[in-house]
Amino acid sequence: MTAGEKNTPYLVLARKYRPRNFSELIGQSALVTTLSNAIAMNRVAHAFMLTGVRGVGKTTTARILALAFNCIGEDGKGSMTAEPCGKCENCKAIIEGRHVDVLELDAASRTKVDDIREIIDSVQYAPTSARYKIYIIDEVHMLSKSAFNALLKTLEEPPAHVKFVFATTEINKVPITILSRCQRFDLQRIEQEKLSKYFSELIKKEKIEAEGEAIAMIARAADGSVRDGLSLLDRAISLSDGSITAKLVEDMLGLADKNILFDLFEALTSAKAGRAFEILDKLYKSGADSKNIIDELLNITHLITKFRAVPETLQNSYLTQIELDRSKTLQEKLEIPALTRLWQILLKGFDEVSASHNPKQTLDMVVIKALYAAELPVPQDIINKLNSDISNISDKQIVKKKL
């Protein structure tokens, strides 16, 4: 490492590899196609509403739009483009966050009507150097009712040189009067397979070695969020000595060996109380978190139920070999009614463990409830037994009458 590299401030992966054009944006093909076509046809709306869970690219998309609308090309003569050059003065200023015509506001800290009036007063003035004046308002759902009302007229008929881009994780809190004035895009959770592929590419760029299973575990833990996954990847790199292993990721996430978790699941569904608590003790001693244990049990329940209902989903490549082998075996032994009952017990138990002042005790009680339920017949079996008994009684009565 050179002296210059040592003095360069470290950027987390989420910032270092933030997409700067639509081709780099992963998992949002519908949005990319629609916006690219709109820009190519010069049919660009004046207001956009971007919604979705955290870390799927709402703010990133807003910044890409600002680049696309204002890029002038390296020769300074370019027009709007879905592939901004990143080298012209406008692009550089937007990327560095210093362009005077691209204003990014956080509605979480600027909720009042006076903050919106500042925007309304400034929209009348033409851009200083860009093609469009862009207002990016993040977490827009946090604006007050009066702030939304103040924005309505301007949002409906803004000057031709102004574009609004809103981002929110809670679209249901945005008034319908605001939504009706925007072109809405729902950003999707990123599939685990795509996240795994993306993280593997970044790891190569960072010149770090990583096991495929380790990357798959991080992608699964990210739960569809690129930013969450990159934060976990940053942690894993810091913990490693240049090689990220599945064991390292397990320890980092507070998870135990997958086989042990499948053993616990099998003990629960077989009503083997002694075995279940023996495994729980091992998990506690290894430092596993109660909430993570029940979360993993939910994942296994979902996995096996899905395989039982749709066996061909076993072909998904992002599953580890342990998950494939154990799931194939277990899904042959368990019926869907029993699995869905276990799912309800665990799901309710997850909320109880999360809210409990003593998560270990609460998890123990959830496990006991699941063990007890495993010995009970499912409702359909009870109905079948009753129908069978009624049928037998009727047959006996018929025979008796004949005699």
SSE inventory with pairings:
Elements: H1 3-7, H2 13-16, H3 29-40, E1 47-51, H4 58-70, H5 89-95, E2 102-106, H6 113-122, E3 133-138, H7 145-156, E4 162-168, H8 176-179, E5 183-186, H9 192-205, E6 209-210, H10 212-222, H11 226-239, E7 243-244, H12 246-253, H13 258-269, H14 273-285, H15 290-309, H16 321-333, H17 336-355, H18 359-374, H19 379-402
Helix pairs in contact: 4-5, 6-7, 9-10, 10-11, 10-12, 13-14, 13-15, 13-16, 15-16, 15-17, 17-18
Describe the structure.
The relative contact order is 0.08. Strand 3 (133-138), helix 7 (145-156) and strand 4 (162-168) form a beta-alpha-beta unit. Helix 4 runs antiparallel to helix 5 and helix 13 (258-269) runs parallel beside helix 16 (321-333). The chain contains 19 helices and 7 strands. The model has no long low-confidence stretch (mean pLDDT 86). The protein folds into 3 domains: 3-186, P-loop containing nucleotide triphosphate hydrolases (Rossmann fold); 192-253, Orthogonal Bundle (Helicase, Ruva Protein, domain 3); 258-375, Zinc Finger, Delta Prime, domain 3, CATH 1.20.272.10. The chain is an alpha/beta fold. The N and C termini lie far apart (101 Å). The strands form 2 sheets. The protein has a 5-stranded parallel sheet with strand order 2-3-4-1-5, covered by helices on one side.
Largest sheet: 5 strands, parallel
CATH superfamily of the largest domain: P-loop containing nucleotide triphosphate hydrolases
Helical content (DSSP H or I, runs of 4+):
55-70%
Estimate the global geometry from the Cα principal axes.
elongated
